[in-house]
């Protein structure tokens, strides 16, 4: 399952849906909004997406991960919009027979998501707004 | 031919619009469109060129554009 949403997600619900007779473990990665960034107090995080392309890219990453690591299933949920400190941003949950392939697949998916998927995060601190991953001249 | 261009994140803020349509000469390449946009929107011209996609797929700059294409121009991604 791939989902891009403004709503929060329930990790328990995702885990319950992934369980099955051949599943021996579920490995999840949850990204959250940090409260301090480079010494600045963060007020909120704004997440922007090019949704049609992001869904296509996520589906392809999920397909490659299942094929490469022979895991049972992968769910990916990414939130967009304005998020508060400690809010969930992203959930990647991998179900597998054994833990090693689940850890490897989970790591692969988050690395590829950060490399390829057209999603951008802007940290709004008490003094400035900064696109994460941008250069100094992208500070606004 | 008519091309729709959408800007995202820091590129959108640099050019000041979400997107617009352009009339291009038939046979124009992505590189031609990018150079035209950099002249129109000087804020877009930085040391690292933005990334581009056409109809939701990443492409090379020598790709020829076609009538009705939707071009996305965006900075390096940072999701997760």
Summarize the entry for a quick read:
The complex is a heterodimer of chains A (140) and B (80). By secondary structure, chain A is an alpha+beta fold.
Task: Give a structural overview.
The complex is a heterodimer of chains A (140) and B (80). By secondary structure, chain A is α+β, with helices and mostly antiparallel strands. Chain A has three helices and nine strands; from the N terminus they run βαβββαβββαββ. In chain A, the strands form two sheets. In chain A, strands 3, 4, 6, 8 and 9 form a five-stranded antiparallel β-sheet that branches. A four-stranded mixed β-sheet of chain A has the order 1-5-7-2, sandwiched between helices. In chain A, a hairpin with a 3-residue loop joins β8 (119-125) and β9 (129-131). The radius of gyration of chain B is 12 Å and the shape is globular. Chain B has one domain (2-74): Beta-grasp domain (Ubiquitin-like (UB roll), Roll), CATH 3.10.20. Chain B has two helices and five strands. With 80 residues, chain B is an alpha+beta fold. In chain B, a hairpin with a 2-residue loop joins β3 (51-54) and β4 (57-58). In chain B, strands 2-1-5-3-4 form a five-stranded mixed β-sheet. Chain A binds chain B through residues 31, 47-50, 52-54, 56, 78, 89-90, 110, 113-122, 131-135, 137-138, 140, and chain B through 6, 8-10, 13, 46-48, 53, 56-57, 72, 74-80.
């Amino acid at each position: 399952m791939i989902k891009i949403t403004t709503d929060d997600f329930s990790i328990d619900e995702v885990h319950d849906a992934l369980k099955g007779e051949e599943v021996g473990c579920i490995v999840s990665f949850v990204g959250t909004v940090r409260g301090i960034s480079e010494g600045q107090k963060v007020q909120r995080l704004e997440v922007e997406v090019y949704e049609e392309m992001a869904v296509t890219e996520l589906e392809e990453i999920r397909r490659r991960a299942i094929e490469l690591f022979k895991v049972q299933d992968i769910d990916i949920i990414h939130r967009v919009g304005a998020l508060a400190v400690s809010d969930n941003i992203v959930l990647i949950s991998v179900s597998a027979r054994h833990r090693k392939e689940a850890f490897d697949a989970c790591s692969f998916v988050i690395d590829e998501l950060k490399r390829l998927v057209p999603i951008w995060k802007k940290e709004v601190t008490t003094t400035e707004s900064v696109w994460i991953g941008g250069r100094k001249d992208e500070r606004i | 031919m008519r091309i729709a261009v959408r800007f995202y994140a820091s590129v959108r803020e640099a050019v000041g619009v979400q997107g617009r349509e352009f009339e291009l000469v038939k046979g124009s390449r992505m590189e031609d469109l990018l150079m035209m946009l950099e002249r129109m929107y000087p804020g877009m011209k930085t040391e690292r060129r933005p990334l581009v996609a056409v109809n939701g797929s990443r492409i090379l700059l020598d790709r020829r554009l076609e009538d009705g294409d939707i071009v996305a121009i965006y900075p390096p991604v940072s999701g997760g």
